[in-house]
Amino acid sequence: MKVSIVHNHEHKSNEVTRHLLLLLKKNKIEIDDHQPDLVISVGGDGTLLSAFHRFSHRLDEVSFLGVHTGHLGFYTDWRDYELEELVQSLLVHQEKSISYPLLDVKISFHGNKPDKHFLALNESTIKRANRTMVADVFIKDELFERFRGDGLSVSTPTGSTAYNKSIGGAVLHPSINAFQLAEIASLNNRVFRTLGSPIVIAHTEWVEIKLQESNDYLITVDQLDIYQDDIKSIYYRIADERIHFASYRHMHFWHRVKDAFISED
């Protein structure tokens, strides 16, 4: 097995990474930052998102495992004081993994500028810098509504617990192969109307957000901020690719939700 470690630069994460590297070398587990079989993130969920985007071109060949240096997150199964147990579990040959859906994001532009493609593990959002955003929402190429408001958020099931939840979206179990569209501060009155509720889109369908011409749109894909001129539309669907998490000790999704938002008894 070849392992790569991705960590943030906080003092605790640096210390944990040094200890983990020593344990891996002691147990003759190869470190390979170019073609690993397993990527271990040390930090929080944001660090794991960074690891995902770094290795998103190898999703069919790599699995992920998260070590949290604070409290357990939605993508981290191990704590920083469990490193010896973690390394011992790697020595037991296991090929089992659990996979989660990803969001395919395609940004199209006016003129002859080529499309840009991204994969999101959590969500993608569309906003305008200083004005109300006006956009036509198409589902399977059919106009669904004209949106006016602060913006729109499109999330995966695992990302449903992040920004999506804070704007009133539902929490979806990751076994549901679908994505969710939620409105950010929509404008609803006697003149302008939107559905006003989050909607869940099946993996067989797609959403296209067609924008009014403007150069002040901000597109996010997970923690990435994408500033581009002449954006015409953003196309969303469930990606063909999936992220795989090593299931040496993978925590039940609803346990994570309870631990994050309700706390343990």
TrEMBL record:
The EC number on file is 2.7.1.23
- Origin: domain of life: Bacteria
InterPro entries the UniProt entry points to: ATP-NAD_kinase_N, ATP-NAD_kinase_PpnK-typ_C, NAD/diacylglycerol_kinase_sf, NADK
Just give the chief location class.
cytoplasm
Which cofactors does the annotated protein need, by name? a divalent metal cation
Q: Which UniProt keywords apply?
A: ATP-binding, Cytoplasm, Kinase, NAD, NADP, Nucleotide-binding, Transferase
Compartment annotation: Cytoplasm
Q: Which GO terms describe its cellular component?
A: cytoplasm
GO BP annotations listed? NAD+ metabolic process; NADP+ biosynthetic process
A Pfam family for this UniProt protein?
Answer: NAD_kinase
NAD among keywords: yes
Q: Where does NAD(+) bind?
A: D45, G46, N122, E123, R148, D150, T161, A162, Y163, N164, K165, S166, A185
Checking NCBIfam families in the record gives:
PRK04885.1 (NF003424)
HAMAP family, sorted: NAD_kinase
Protein name as it appears in the record: NAD kinase
